[in-house]
Amino acid sequence: MSAPFPLEPRNPEQFRQETRKSNLIVMGTFAVTAMILATLSVKVFGSPEGGNFRWNLAGVIAGVVVTSAIFRLVYLQQPWMESARYNWQLKRCLMSLTNIMHQLKAGVEAQDPVATKAMRFYHQGLEQMYRLENHESALADLLPESRAHATRLEALGIDTDQSTFDPEWVEQLKAAYKKKP
User: What is the per-residue DSSP string for 105-166?
Assistant: First the structure.
């Protein structure tokens, strides 16, 4: 099982600037790599009469593979990738809860402490993601539900600050509230 994931305070403007930079670097790497490999494959394997689409395509596919390797082996360890890495981890945590939303809602209805904490993290994580990505309308839609759930936690005597995602929650909720066939 993976480690708990804590929400970290982030400046939305700086976050967007850093993710834009990392996206441009990765896209630029792909563009240059794909162009070089496509040109090289046409020169080496292509025909002077034309009809080299497959060699161009092979170069582009090789560019995807090479860029993916550079991304995993080099770029992911760079400090300028921190915001993109954090965003990816946040979205993975939120998606793991979205994937069991029926069980999560059933647990909240049953006042299960694990489910109520997980739902609170889900709301806090979504709020942060919407703020970081400047999704004001989605944030406005979420806030009433989030506030109502926070009030429910207070009534149950559960801390409303659930800023750390525990992957064990997903397994516990899956086991406790199995989907009915």
Answer: HHHHHTT-HHHHHHHHHHHHHHHHHHHHTT-HHHHHHHHHHHHHHHHHHHHHT--S---EE-
CB 37 within 8 A of CB 17: no
**Beta bridge mates, 164:** 6
Cα gap 97→104, rounded to integer Å: 7
Distance CA 22, CA 85 (A): 10
pTM reported for the whole predicted model: 0.86
Query: Residue 142's pLDDT band (boundaries 50, 70, 90)?
Result: very high
Q: Is the dihedral of CA 71, 74, 80, 82 positive or negative?
A: positive
Q: β-strand 164-165 against 5-6: which pairing, if any?
A: antiparallel
Question: Quick check: 1 pLDDT over 90?
Answer: no
45: CB partners within 8 A, 6+ apart: 55, 58
